[in-house]
Amino acid sequence: MSRSLFLPLLLATIGPAQTRLTVPAAKDNTLYQDPSGSLSNGAGQHVFAGTNAAGLARRGLLTFDLRGLLPPFATLHSAVITLSVSQAQSTPSVPVSLHRVSAPWGEGDSRASGDEADGASATAGDATWRHRSFPTVQWTTAGGDFEVLPVATTTLVGGNGSYGFTSAQLVADVQYLAWHPEAAFGWLIQGDENGTGSAKRFASREHPDPALRPRLTLTWTNPEPAIGLFGGLCGGFDVVPSGMCHIGNAAFAADFVGGIPSGLGLLLVGSAEAQPWLPLGPDCHVYLDPVAIALITLVPLSPVGTARVPLPIPASPALMGTWAYVQMVALDRATPAVRGSRGMALFLAD
Predict the structure, then answer these.
(1) H helices of 82-211, where?
(2) Do residues 299 and 255 touch, judged by C-beta distance below 8 A?
(3) Long-range contacts (CB closer than 8 Å, 24 or more residues apart) made by 6-10
(4) What is the pLDDT of residues 265-322, one digit of tens each?
(5) Which of 6, 54, 251, 297 could form a disulfide linkage to 267, CB 3.0–4.6 angstroms apart?
(6) Is 105 left (phi over 0), alpha (psi -120 to 50) or beta?
(7) Domain encompassing residue 184
(8) Residue 177: inside a domain
(9) Nearest-angstrom CA–CA distance, 75 and 68
(10) Over the stretch 82-98, which tens digit does the pLDDT of each residue have?
(11) Which own/partner pairs from 89-93 qualify as long-range (CB within 8 Å, at least 24 positions apart)?
(12) Does residue 183 share a domain with residue 62?
């Protein structure tokens, strides 16, 4: 959308609506340190982070499906990833951190036996210490491709129980990834790898107890609807909104004033504005992008050049955070006179 013509005149807004949502994990796995890269646990009930008794590292992988969760222009206030320890080799608290993963990875149907600490033979598509997708696609660096600096760290991970990970960086990560799903590869769970026997076992998304499975809890403020007017007053031809453009407002309407008396109005509704592409006279243009015009309707004008046009807004969540543009072109029925109204920009929201 071109913003060069949109000179906002905010006429009204409604109060922000806050939304809270808990999202289950979409995929998880464990990288077991192993030179051959043949171990995984894609379908296991647990994910590990830390080291085993031999000092070999275990790193968890976790991702959530963020597509379509946040409306455009929503403001994310909090993001908390909750992991539940189901077994700990060391009862003292150790640091566990989340690192953003920089490459896609897989979850196969491998499933380790017993307490799952030693992994299982990787199956097709599994992530392993060496592979993003077993057996053909490898990490750039063995042990996973991830950002060195953590996005969140919890230093109090000890015995069994639930632990929350959050930070301003995690909030920024989630907000960005929700709008850029092509980069949403999740996070790596890294425990204390400096000694031996530090591993923590977390419940995975396949754990039989739903209350222990990984989850991401989000709280955000939905965008507020707003109305702006733009363009020139061609002969005083203007538009005045009636009501606010919140989603589901079936009574929303536009009042056009100062048009050609008893003229014929051509109502244009579209999804984008453009540089003035069709001049109609001094300070008078069609401002909507012709390619994006979705509706053209004939509207008779009153003897004083006015018209009220109903513009009901559907109760569709898909409209959240989208723009709509409205303008009318008035035609004189007796002469070739043409007059264009100012444009009205609608930012649709709850």
Answers:
(1) 168-179
(2) no
(3) 6/228, 6/230, 6/273, 6/345, 7/228, 7/229, 7/230, 8/226, 8/228, 8/345, 9/227, 9/228, 9/229, 10/226, 10/227, 10/228
(4) 999 999 888 766 777 877 788 888 888 888 899 999 999 999 999 999 999 988 888 8
(5) 297
(6) beta
(7) 18-221
(8) yes
(9) 14
(10) 999 987 665 678 899 99
(11) 89/50, 89/52, 89/53, 89/197, 89/198, 89/199, 89/200, 90/50, 90/197, 90/198, 90/199, 91/158, 91/159, 92/158, 93/155, 93/156, 93/157, 93/158
(12) yes
Outline where DSSP puts E strands in 36-178.
39-40, 46-51, 57-63, 75-88, 94-100, 120-121, 131-133, 137-138, 152-157, 161-165
Q: Which residue has the tokens 């301003």?
A: 168
Residues 6+ positions from 108 with CB-CB distance below 8 Å: 40, 42, 43, 122, 123, 124, 125, 126, 134
Q: Do residues 216 and 255 share a domain?
A: no
- Residue 185, pLDDT > 50, answer yes
Instruction: Tell whether 176 and 233 lie within a shared domain.
Output: no
DSSP per residue, 269-329: EES-EEEEEEEEETTEEEEE-GGGEEEEEEEEPPTTS-EEEE-PPP--GGGTTEEEEEEEE
- 214 near 60, Cβ under 8 Å? no
CA atoms within a 13 Å half-sphere pointing along the CA-CB vector of 325: 25
Q: Which of 221, 255, 281 is the last residue of a domain?
A: 221
Q: Which helix (H) or strand (E) holds 226?
A: strand 226-230
84 contacts 212 by C-beta, under 8 angstroms? yes
